[in-house]
Amino acid sequence: MKKSILSLASAMLFVFATNAQKVEFEEYDLSNGMHVILHKDTSAPVVVTSVMYHVGAKDEQPGRTGMAHFFEHLLFEGTENIDKGEWFKIVSSNGGRNNANTTDDRTYYYEIFPSNKLELGLWMESERLLHPIIKQGGVDTQNEVVKEEKRLRVDNQPYSRFLEYVKENIFKKHPYKGTTIGKMADLDAATLEEFLAFNKKFYVPNNATLVVAGDIDVPAAKKMIQDYFGPIPRGEEVEKDFPQEDPITEAMTAKGYDPNIQIPAIMAAYRTPSMKTRDSRVLDMISSYLSTGRSSVLYKKLVDEKKMALQAGAINASQEDYGTYILYGLPQGETKLEDIIAEIDEEIVKMQTDLISEKDFQKLKNQFENNFVNSNSSVEGIASSLATFNVLYGDTNLINTEIDIFRSITREEIRDVAKKYLNPNQRLTLEYLPEAK
């Protein structure tokens, strides 16, 4: 009876996800190369105006790390028509909110307004693109802001540096070996001319995707978009030609230190393929199998049953060009770091040898159906997904069809992908320690 109830719940979730979650959208290009995506949703009187620029930390020049993230801050300084310090005041006084974020692959800006303020959102984003004021005073101000952010989120945050240590050892050639926030010495050394050149190169309409989502009149929105963005000149084409990594064929070891921690950690990290690949989606499922929830394999074994670890899990940090797959554990009591890795490896070998159970497989599918439903449950989430799938995957309609990829993954693929990528001779083992000895 219990099995029947679970099957019924799974079937109902599948039907709901299939029928209720299709996101309708329209996309086209302006003559200057800006890509536009429109999504109409009248369920609430709100609208999202967002722009994703295909520039991130990997696009920076050696010795000038942190530039992409710095621009996320700098371009709120003001424009020719928005005075310094007025950006956030304009947004809040019109009932809106806004933010921005940067990764190694892209930078994303967005506003959420009442739907009758659509034109305001479009004007503000066109101002950011067409009339930014980049002067030494603004650079100096934001330099201090970024330094404070680094102090709060990295320098003084426990366990915040593990990805930095992993990436600098996993990547030998590709710029993923750096950090998104960059080195403060590089930003201190950058000249105003270099900031202006970065803006001119990457902040151009043909390197941007504009998403307008929410309670909109589509013809009126198109006219406003043409009026505000159409006249912006096209920039030079942005060429992306990053070095390819050689395969990892021998085990690597490294140590990283963090003065903010008392309990060490152990990581086994593997370089994996682009998030655009099917294998990367399979690795997503493997991560969920190993570490999502208290009933997951690693938590149940290492934390709950054997009491060897305070935490244990798996992370598939997938990116546009490569991914980084990380297995980790924090020891409890006198447990040795190598013993945690041995226990994790035992579970990986099981996955590489035997098929996971039908019960666990059904649980995985349910988790991904639920994730799909939740990701499209708000206009804000839909706007972000539309931009991401267009800019980083090159296929906007993945917002509707990516779930079909996950649905089609088999237990045999889970076994084969684990066997293909998660091997000791293909990894970095990193000891993440409280202090240098």
From TrEMBL:
Annotated signal sequence range: 1-22
Peptidase M16 N-terminal domain ranges (all copies): 36-181
Keyword Calcium on entry: no
Keyword terms, alphabetized: Hydrolase, Metalloprotease, Protease, Signal, Zinc
GO biological process: proteolysis
Residue ranges constituting the Peptidase M16 C-terminal domain according to the UniProt record: 190-367
InterPro entries according to UniProt: Metalloenz_LuxS/M16 (IPR011249), Pept_M16_N (IPR011765), Peptidase_M16 (IPR050626), Peptidase_M16_C (IPR007863)
Keyword flag Ribosomal protein: no
GO MF terms, alphabetically ordered: metal ion binding; metallopeptidase activity
Bilayer-crossing regions: none
Pfam families named in the record: Peptidase_M16, Peptidase_M16_C
PANTHER family, per the entry: NARDILYSIN (PTHR43690), PROTEIN YHJJ (PTHR43690:SF17)
Similarity section: Belongs to the peptidase M16 family.
Protein name: Peptidase M16
Organism, as annotated: Polaribacter vadi
